[in-house]
What we know:
alpha/beta; Rossmann fold; 3-stranded antiparallel sheet; globular
Amino acid sequence: MRTLLFTWILATIGMVSVAHAQDPQEHIIVSGGPALLKWERLRFKADQHDKWYFNFIRPAARVRIPQLKKIYGDQAKITWMVYRPAYERRQREAGKPLIRWIESVIEKHPTVNLVWFDSGDDVINYINRGQNRRRLKIGSMDFYLHSNKYCFMFDYSCEILGCSKAFLHQNDLSKLRRSAFAKNAQSKSWGCHTGESMSSYWRKATGTKLWGAIGKTDYSNINTGGSYKNPALDPRGRWAY
Length: 241
C-alpha cells in the first residue's frame, strides 16, 4: 500500500516515467467550466478569475494525461469528462471554437475517452455505471474545477454571477458505489478547500482517498513559458484527505 501511494504521489508531480506493462483500472479526469467574462468584469479586480477559458482544460490535457500514460502505458484506460455547457457559453462569448479545440486533444491522444457531461448526476452515473465495474475498477480521479469545502462546482458564474447551477455536493457522494473503486484508488481535487470537508465524505462513501486542499489553489501560473503544470497550492495551505 505504501509503495502504491508513493508511486501515485510521484506521478502527480511528474517524477515517474516507467510505465506498468498493463493496468486493469480506469483513470478519470474531470474538468469543470469557466465563468463568463461579462460576470467577472462586475467583480472587484482582485476577485476576478477565469480570464483564460482553459484553466481547467490545459492541466488535464497537457499535464495529467501525459503523466498517466507515463505510469500506465500508452494504452492506459483514461476517461476525460468535461462540463460542456460552460464551454458552449464561453465559446459564444469569446467567438472562438473552444469545443473543437477540446476535441482536438483526443486527436493527439486517441486512446483517451472524451465524455461530455451536463450535471453532477452525469458524473455519478459514469462512476457507477459508465463501465462494467466488476471488471474495470477506478484507479484514480482528478478534478480540475471550482470548489469550496462542501462542493465541486462544474459551473460557477457561467449562468448566474457568483452561483453554480451544476455541482456535486458532499451529501451527494453517498450515491457513489464503493464497489466502483479499486481498493488502492488515489484521487485528487485541484480545486480550493476540498480537503476541509469534502475529502472526508468521499472517504466515507468510497473507502478511498481524495486528496484536497486546505486553503486555496492557484491556476494563475499553470503556463510558464509555454510549459504547463498543475495549479499551485496556496503557500499557507496543505494537502489532506
